[in-house]
Amino acid sequence: MKVVITGAAGFLGDRLADYLLADNSPIPVTELLLADAFPAKKRSDKRVKTIVLDITAPDASDKLIDNKCDVFFHLAAVVSGRSELDFDLGFRVNFDASRALLEKARQTIPTLKFVFVSTLAAYGGDLPPLVSEFVASTPQNSYGTAKSMVELLVNDYSRRGFVDGRIVRLPTVTVRAGKANEALTSFASGIIREPLNGEKTVCPTRLDLVLWVTSPATVIKNIAYAATLPTGALGQWRCVNIPGFGVSVQEMLDALETVGGKKALSLVRYERDPRVELLVESLPTNFDNSRALSLGFTVDKNFLDVVRAYVRDELKRKD
Fold first, then answer.
1. From what superkingdom does this record's organism come (predicted)?
2. Radius of gyration of the chain (CA)
3. Residue of 19, 123, 143, 157 marked active site
4. Is 143 known to be catalytic?
5. 33: alpha, beta or left, given left = phi > 0 and alpha = psi -120 to 50?
């Protein structure tokens, strides 16, 4: 199968590529095109091709989609923090470019399995105690708004037979290796990653604030799994909330101390940031995982295991 990944130089895109190229990949990859505005990691695998491009360019979709494509993972995005600072850039990348890709698929290969990576930031405001995929999107930030608009397009293009779409809404992913990105939720990794690397960090929220999270390894498996679902498995609404679990900032720091000791915990400085708190507090923290689990998606057990997995698999990793 020919597979394309946008955002391939990013944290998730890079690890998704590695996962799909592995011997136990759920997708039989014969060609993998990695696309990003920055060069993707060099790989010796002959199946891999890379392209550096501006996804908002008029000819970008022509370079990414042809009639040989089987699966398209669309991860490229301008994340929450930058989208709030630069409204026009956020919508060009998050909405306009996504629409152009869908239209190219419609014109070229309507059978394309188009996996759109969305976000729990599609929700916000006054929400019920337990959130499912069928709760209306009421985003409270420009990032979530653009993602919600593309979700509707993917669903309608799928309904019309223009593309075989699958939408996966991601929880906050932690613990991410590497450097912090511009997402306002990036502290959820930073308060664990930096201390375990012997570096100081800032916790910008109150300790009882709860986040809905997933680990990198689990979310990569779930993103890839979405492409293997039979056509029609998601029914009339092609969106699924990737399973996660709720954890408070205090519980995260407790796990840090358990794994890294008091020395690691002492590297965390507490300085509340109203901008971060406002966004994080607008996000739901209790989801109904039942639909996703019934479809075969998986979920982490607890945050302590997530931190231990970071130490085992990612600590000091050089990308």
1. Eukaryota
2. 19
3. 143
4. yes
5. beta
